[in-house]
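Quick start: read one record
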Amino acid sequence: MKAQDGLEFIRDRITELRLLRGLSEYELSYGIERSKGFIQGITSGRRAPSVEALLEIIDYLGVEPEEFFRKREKEDRALEEMRAEALLMSDGDREIVLHLMKEMNGKAKK
C-alpha cells in the first residue's frame, strides 16, 4: 500500500464512521478539542493527521485502532450501522429491537 493510498483510507474511514454516528465534521473537531476545520482539512486531503490526533479521532468515534484499520466487509458495515442506530435509541427501544431480533432467529424467550 502506498502512503497516498493509506491516507485516502484514513480519510474515507473517518468520514464513514463520522457519518454512521451522525456527526458533522465540526462536531467531531469540537469533540476532540481541535479547531473548527480540523477534520475537514483531513477529509479533504489538505492535511494528514499526526498519530496522536488520529488516535484521538479513533477514540472519539468509539472504535479500537485495530477495528478502524480493518478493511470492512459489507456485512460488517451493516452491523456497524445497526450499532450506531441502536446507540441513539432509548434503553427500552433497544430491548424491543433485541427481542425482535431474537424472535427472528428463533431464540426469543416466551
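The first helix runs from residue 3 to 20.
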